[in-house]
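ugh ok so i messed up the first submission bc i forgot one of the chains. this is the corrected input, ALL of the components this time, i swear. 981 residues overall. if the numbers dont match what u have on ur side tell me asap before i send this to the collaborators (the ones from the other lab, u know who)
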Amino acid sequence: MSHYDQGGWEAVIGLEVHAQLKTESKLFCGCSASFGAGPNENTCPVCTAMPGVLPVLNRRAVDYAIRAALATDSKINRISRWARKNYFYPDLPKAYQITQYEQPYCEHGKVSVEVDGKATVVGLTRIHMEEDAGKNVHDPRADRSLVDLNRASVPLLEIVSEPDIRSPAEAAAYMRKMRSILRYLGICDGNMNEGSMRCDANISLRKRGSDTLGTRTETKNLNSFRAVEKALAYEIERQAEILNSGGSIVQETRLWDADRGVTRSMRGKEEAHDYRYFPEPDLLPLEIDDEWIERVRAALPELPDARRNRFIRDYQLPEYDAAVLTASKELADYYERAVARHNNPKSLSNWVMGDIIRIANESAGEAEADYSSIPLSPEKLAAMVALIDDGTISGKIAKSVFTKMVESGEEPAVIVEREGWVQLSDSSQLEAMVVEMLEANADKVEEYRGGKEKLFGFFVGQVMKASQGKASPQLVNKILKEKLS
Amino acid sequence: MSVTMSAIEQLSSLSIEEASALLRKRELSSRELTEACLQRIESSDEAVGSFLEITAELALEQAGRADQRLAAGDDVCALTGIPVALKDIFLTKGVRTTCASRLLENFVPTFDSTVSERLYQAGAVLVGKVNMDEFAMGSSCENSALGNTRNPWDQQKVAGGSSGGSAACIAARQVLGSYGTDTGGSIRLPASYCGITGMKPTYGRVSRYGVIAFASSLDQVGPLATTVRGAAALLETVAGHDRRDSTSIKEPVPDYLGLLEGGVEGMRIGVPRQYFVEGIDPQVASAVHAALARFEELGAQIIEVDLPHSEYAVATYYLVATAEASSNLGRYDGVRYGIRRGGDGALLDMYGATRNAGFGTEVKRRIMLGTYVLSAGYYDAYYLKAMKVRTLIRRDFLRAFEQCDVIAGPTSPGTAFELGSRTADPLAMYMSDVLTISVNLAGLPALSLPCGADSHGMPVGLQIIGKALDEASVFKTAAAYEASTDWHHRLPEISS
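and heres the new structure output, hopefully the right one now
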């Protein structure tokens, strides 16, 4: 029994998510915000903090931020302010980060999350805009540090949740949902391994039923969904063990060490930075009026929850199917392209949830599946299902067609034609095969007639086998029933 | 022994408007005028010490192009062909820009400030970069790490600061116009001490892009010249919205030169009862009273006004300005430019060694003060309270301006003091700005022009303060006074 269960504890978790906005240019200058350029290629006097330079707000980043606010039912503040967060580090060229502090642009949002079929709502304390820092790279050969400022001043959203999360699984579900929303909005790549989405977790324990909060720790360096889940599970156990043995939790910042699977202390409360926040005098307060909000709202894409409901309604899909298909915008797009080509929503849903997700995972290897580059077009998948539905091929043969299509990229009809996989639906030919099979298994026929009805499946299988899978199962069923009655 | 002016040097004593008229009539070339200035600098700057960098080659090349432009007769503006100097706080592409700091002593910018860009576009001639207090922190120009500037009227006395070089180079007739920055009086105070005209426009009137920041919410660029008209021409050339400075004002720039005439007849001039402070030099007080009397003779009405929160201005200023400065100066960390010390050691050691070697005493003092002001637990008591007082000071002015069109009074309680006499006493030094600082806190335009001299011949400055965006009334009031006096014609004798 875990220390957590033993102590009757309840975990109280709040997450801070940093999402990099994929605007063309940086938050306060015209430099490209793209990932992957050579060191310091995407820099200018402003983002390298030469003397005398001044920030100019990228209004496109505010458009994106408003999208996030609208998608999370947040209250948008008509006036918000920029602030400076001061600290020294070589990857922070101004020695301050421009962020929002006392007056963020949005507050009081919410996001619905589902874990094991149980839906909960996680509140959002606030979302604010800020600029990213650059990157220090240590060069061990020369024993020196190098600074790359390409990422300096790339726009970020910091999304701060209420302490509404109660388990590591719920935290992971929240992260997945948040990423899904950001991707649907087209404002963030959500690649945790590339750092375009990052997460810090605040966690404390309290006795079940209590409504006072315990002392919390903050865990940093959570750069995958798995890390979020594992680090929280570790931290919950660590805290429970201390509390069960009569100890008390130290308020501190901890670092997740993925290799060793532990969190360890990074700095205590006493060493916490004093960031000396104050209003940024180089920027005017940010005013977001109704017209701006409405302009963004009008162009807002459909969001995951709405799309899921539409899938249930329009495609008559079970709730489960709709949830799986719409969790990823790319997967849902794929599905809808297939359905547009051939109108058999449930069969296509089965194929997408099964074989398509499987091949996407296979081609991604260790990495996370990328549904934007599935190695089979939705049109070909649809064409194949159409061949099943019009009786040209059997469902069983379809599995082989599918594999060939993925390998060669050919049209399913071409494969079926070449391989001679057209389904046998000639009744007389099939009848002959059925008769032959029954004769060869006369003993089993006796048993069947004696009441062992399970053998019906065996007979179907034998015919399918004899036809090398090409026989129409429906027709075989029909003929068999006639012959055995 | 006094340095007398050669015939050619006397050209450098022309006002901007006089020189511009001769240039347009082709009776004088920009090249001749530029050479005159360079000669004048050569003969006088050892005594005065205005310049940190003389850009003779660039100046002559720009003068040559200005002459072509003048010959073609198109696109000629008020500053085409006019030699000017820039405080060494303005970034000038390819020309060393130091902010008078050891930290930046070898810093050569890769881009221009908006001000230098607009000057070049207008065809002005950049003769050099002039001295200042390091990072514009000071009231005497003695905090420069790179040079000593002396008052042209008495070389034992300070030129005032922080734009000391910008004022001294005008008083010594080394160039016809210059630019400085004014965060708490840094244009008006040296203008007053050196007997010339200096103007701080409304906050946001001139772009701060490419101007090395001291206190961002207070810093403002402004002109210095021998005449009001010259100052107006200098301001008109560089003022106006700049996309690269979000705090620059979008309002169109009025035609200052066109609005200069008209006099003060019927104008109401407010005189704050708080501006004749205790400890004011009686000679300053009497010179300013005489100027006020002159305004009455010219048809203006003098009204006493109340600025009740004036006494808190200096304290408020030193909280706000140092807080912003402590943050603005964080970027000088030895990583990307400027000097680097202790680069082989640990990171914190490099920061410490670089900043210790790079910054002077006053800069360090203000960084420490500002860091303290913003610290957790002190923010509310200091910074936040200062911001509230700042609002009260702004309201004082709004109320006063319900009764008057401009406000007038002394620029400083005294005249230029002896070099070294206040360096050991920062508070005494800070009090030199007691009458200029509240204008920055309120973001208003204000100008200082000469209105007399003390018994040692040291100039006295008259300060005229306007409503926000109303530089035109300030210029008009000053021009009316100037036209009725000779103070601006008085020349210092520079002894070497």
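quick check: Chain B has a mean pLDDT of 95. that seems consistent at least. DSSP finds 16 helices and 13 strands in chain B.
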